[in-house]
Please model this.
Amino acid sequence: MRYRGGRILATWLAAMLVHGAAVAAPQAASRDARPAHWTHHVGDHGGDRGALDRILVEIVHGVPAPTRRPGNWALALAGLIGAGAIARRRVSFARQRSLVVFPPTDVARIADASQVGDAARADDAPAIGDLPRPADVVELHPARDRATHAAGRGAHLTYCLAAGLLLSPAVRAEGQDPAKLTPFVEETLTTDDNVFRLSKDVDPATVIGSSSRADTYHTTAFGLNAEMPLSLQRFVANLTFNSTRYQRFSRFDSDGHDLRGSWLWQAGRDLHGELGYADTVSLASFAQLLSPTLDRLQVRQEFVNGTWMVTPYWRLRAAGDRLEQRNSAPATLFNDVTIDGVEAALSRVSKAGNSIGFSTRLERGKFPTAEPFTTPLSTTLIDNAYRQYAASLTLDWTVTGISHLVARADQVSRRYDQLPQRNFTGQTGRIELTWTPTGKTTLTAIVQRDISPYEYTRSSLVLLKGFGLRPGWHVTPKIDLSADLEAVTRSYVADPAQALGFTGQRDDRVRSMSALISYHPIARIGVQASLLHETRSSNAAFGDYAANVVWLNARFAF
Model:
């Protein structure tokens, strides 16, 4: 794996050692008639313990730190200073190691010159003594440069979150729940009879070099979940690193991560919100690519929102967010996008918690790479940048004691900077009704005509129309059963080729059925098994497929 697993593991071990000492020490003291105490006799202070001794006592014996005592806050400050020192050292090292970038031709000449020694020199190449070290010579590669830069940002996020989590036990206020740090590992084994979602009319041997479409692969993941309360504030983080290895199609082996952190802030009783960041890396869906292409997809999200109860019955909400999507495959770079959005909502809230309101959202999408569009006569570059406006009516209502309704109706308008024939104006909406006839069974029904927010193909607008059913059954305190039945039509309504009249609108009809069983023998161990059957029919060439997937997952939390 390319991730610094050793450092993350060291973080886990340090956190668990501190936690173990805090748990074990009071137990040992309770068994001993004369519990041992940390003491440090100082003549000038009449045998009183010093500040460091008090801190050690509180760590070992698990004593909550009073809010007025500076001991744990001093520890937190020391930790921050140490983290800052490490960061400064890394930055200083990076600056001292000057990176020299040469064009490919110069790189080749430098390599040739370095082989013959100081006596020989290429005609126009730098002197051998002036040559940079091989590790410092980098050939220009735009896609790789973006991936390296993104990986650096992900590493910085990891270190910052890890430092914050290690400091979390030190900033607990008196009478408050302690910070929770839960490392975990999990393993998932998956069998898929059509990994690349190939059409039945495609010969797999000509596309993937194998007569079989099926494969079995396993995904190993490790990470930690953390929650730290601090007065009215609450900080949560979820870090997961994963590694997927295929049995047959090993060239698609990949590493990924899912890093998320949020500050759930609150100011008084009537004002609260969330400030958060998320960074995920995974393979793009083969079902969307329509080809067995290795495309590492990175999605970064930043968001902030706030809710203010202006009066006991009127609620005001404002939010802002940014989404950045980056692809690694050269053929899909035109789907790289940055989407900025702001929204505001005003709702009327009843004493029972029901609400009805109005909201509006403005969104701007920018694509750094133009989409190539080829005609029989020429190739044209299309800019997919757009502006989108939406006005919505929202409803959140408890109809009866066993049924709850969430509904939304929108008027949406999207305008493209280029090719106005692609513009979209229409109505969208979603209705979700949850019925809970007993304390152990639930049934959720969904009807929607909506713009898909979870698309890899950002250069087109994908309109979803369909319905779904999601039953659930809490069989025992340790066993849960659930299912998902869905029938959806996906319409790609803003394709440039369609707007110019070269092709018709692509419509896919997806039908899926899945079942999931979860078993938790104890609180820290969970086992899940799932079955999925999915089919797709399409008016696009080779867009149809059928797939059956079985997976088994085991998870252990420390």
